[in-house]
Amino acid sequence: MNSKKGIQRDDNLPLDLNNMPSMDELLGEAGSKSGIEHPDPADICSKKRLHKSLSFFAVNTNDMPTMDTLLSNNTCTESACEKNERSIEKSMADRKRKRKPDLRKSTIIKQIGHMRFVIDGSNVCRSYSCLNGISSLAPLLTLTLTLVKHNAKFQCVFDANEHYMLGKNSSEPENEIVYEKLLNSLSRFFIEVPGATDADDFILSSADRDYLQIISNDRFNKLDENHQSHYPWLQFATKRILKGTVDNNRLIIGQLGINVPLEYDLNQSFKRLADRLRPD
């Protein structure tokens, strides 16, 4: 044990922080043993006030949140943010869909059910085809199925050589068979003009007589045929002659709002069309 005047210490004893004397006690004990005067009471009050002020900033470890709590709260906050972001993205996507129609879906004008058409069948089979001018019944059957589905009335007129033109399409051998079925089973709706007869004359005559809309990419303005002198309304027929195309395997007639996928199964298309057109 080491001994000094006024203060005794044993280095072998453990350090007990809870039982350590305060600064005031140490100063008082040291003063009484060494003859030093006691500090002024005013100074003691100042020290107490300082001690009380500093205690305000003391950290209470019992009230501190654990790491698990902090991570849990952070996860919840992130989840709420992600949910809010998804909600905003969905709202923006909904607005875009409302502003711009989806062209992948069928968009048919409502008035189509009250309209009547005469279809230039040979022109549609040839000019709508994806086979570089080789005739195909696929666009025509797609068109007629769409019209019938929306209760529109139509009559389709073919050139006299259409059977021969369809026979040149080696990639679709069923064209000729389905064509014969159209003429024989659905003769009220599909007509082939006699040889040496111009199908254009028949189409324009029907449209003029019954005020029908014409579906064709033909301009009907050949000088040798002189159609416009017989049918003056052809000069202003932009709304009566409806033109279309096939793009990305979809049949499109913008003036009617038609944008539908092509029907390539000709036999199945004929069956569906016959079920709708033939009387029970």
Structure description:
By secondary structure, this protein is of the alpha/beta class. It has a domain at 116-213 and 227-277: Rossmann fold (3-Layer(aba) Sandwich), CATH 3.40.50. The chain contains ten helices and ten strands. It has helices at residues 23-34, 41-55, 67-99, 121-127, 138-149, 162-167, 174-185, 199-210, 227-230, 266-277, and strands spanning 2-4, 7-9, 116-120, 153-158, 190-192, 213-215, 241-242, 245-247, 250-253, 258-261. The strands form three sheets. A five-stranded parallel sheet has the order 5-4-3-6-7, with helices on both faces. A three-stranded antiparallel sheet has the order 8-9-10, covered by helices on one side. A two-stranded antiparallel sheet has the order 1-2. Helix 9 links the parallel strand 6 and strand 7. The longest helix has 33 residues, at 67-99.
Chart the SSEs and their pairings:
Layout: E1 2-4, E2 7-9, H1 23-34, H2 41-55, H3 67-99, E3 116-120, H4 121-127, H5 138-149, E4 153-158, H6 162-167, H7 174-185, E5 190-192, H8 199-210, E6 213-215, H9 227-230, E7 241-242, E8 245-247, E9 250-253, E10 258-261, H10 266-277
Parallel strand pairs: 3-4, 3-6, 4-5, 6-7
Antiparallel strand pairs: 1-2, 8-9, 9-10
Helix pairs in contact: 5-10, 7-10
